[in-house]
Amino acid sequence: MIRFGVIGCGHWGRNYVRVLTELGDAARLVEICDENRAGLEALRKRFPLVNATTSADQLVANPGVDALVIATPAATHAALAEKALNAGKHVLLEKPLAATLKDSVRVHRLGQEKGRVLMVGHTFRYNDGVRKVKELSGKPEFGRTYYLSARRNHLGLIRPDVSAVWDLAPHDIEIFSFLAGAQPATVSAVGGCFLKPGRQDVAFITLTYPNGVIGNIQVSWIDSNTVREVVVIGDRQRIVFDDINALEPVRIFEKGAEITGDVNSFGEFQHQLRDGDIRSPKVTMREPLRTQVEHFCECVRDGKPPLTGGAEGADVVAVLEAIDRSMAAGGAPAAVEAWRKPGEGGKK
Length: 348
Ligand SMILES: NC(=O)c1ccc[n+]([C@@H]2O[C@H](COP(=O)([O-])OP(=O)(O)OC[C@H]3O[C@@H](n4cnc5c(N)ncnc54)[C@H](O)[C@@H]3O)[C@@H](O)[C@H]2O)c1
Fold this sequence. Notes:
This protein is an alpha/beta fold and about 350 residues long. The protein folds into two domains: about 140 residues, Rossmann fold, CATH 3.40.50.720; about 180 residues, Dihydrodipicolinate Reductase, domain 2. About 30% of the residues lie in helices and about 30% in strands. Helix 4 packs parallel to helix 5. The mean pLDDT is about 95. The chain binds nicotinamide-adenine-dinucleotide (NAD). The site of nicotinamide-adenine-dinucleotide has 23 residues, from loops.
């Protein structure tokens, strides 16, 4: 049994608190921590057997805790994760791994050095809908992937500390890396700061991948129409993941355009338009956060590297930084920093 502590019990951290009390013999929630005394007290009433503290240092020093979930604002991630790893704890840290690539890489390497599991909460890697899209887009009937498109728009929750890019785009950047099987090489992005100078509320981001795939991500927290959608366009099919459609989260459109390979007399490629059915495959949706926490427990128990470890978390932050550079340069393409040393590979 893995003994857990949770630091940061706000909007998202509360879900970890609940999930960790639902895992039976795999995990036991020992102590929760939040600087906000009133919120902590309310949570303690719901879970009276769990200790509570307002001091992260106290929880980090608790010898009865093996692993820490950190669900605090992004700017605090690196320092808290470093404290936890230095105290010998395994760490499940919320996205983004840290506020800069430099900090992200340092935390990742500390995890390796300490031989502890460091996993980043890129929840969509543990989403059955996204996993279904990955499976379907790898089949011969899907054909070749042309491009990826994502929209993540809603009204609020507007964060005081990070932009909509750093809050929302980590999800789609990670989903795209999973689907494309690669880290993007370049990004170009334009953003708008409508509510607060210097902090983007909306952004339009274009990504290029070394395998010729291109991607586009739109994020906004000032759009009253809620959309959470990822689309993969191939030569034979189009696959849609709609995160707010509980009935049909994944749909396959058996339609596409492909080159037949012949060149006609006008020197143009001939192409074929394909028309077919629209299908909704069966997807058994489990709670992604629970699947994520179960995966973390498995990694701690069996000494396995997580699917979304420190390296994958740093990859996402490298893309976020490139997006910021591109936005600062008025949308000019920015290269994504290749931070990995030779041999410091990872999986996609
Ligand atoms: N994976 C997802 O789908 C997902 C969804 C929502 C939020 N998140 C991430 O979770 C993190 C938290 O987001 P949130 O919406 O819960 O924010 P929040 O502001 O609601 O909660 C953060 C909590 O951390 C506490 N806190 C801050 N610093 C602390 C410290 N040093 N010690 C103890 N407590 C501290 C605050 O008092 C607050 O209660 C962010 O990194 C966010 O990106 C991820």
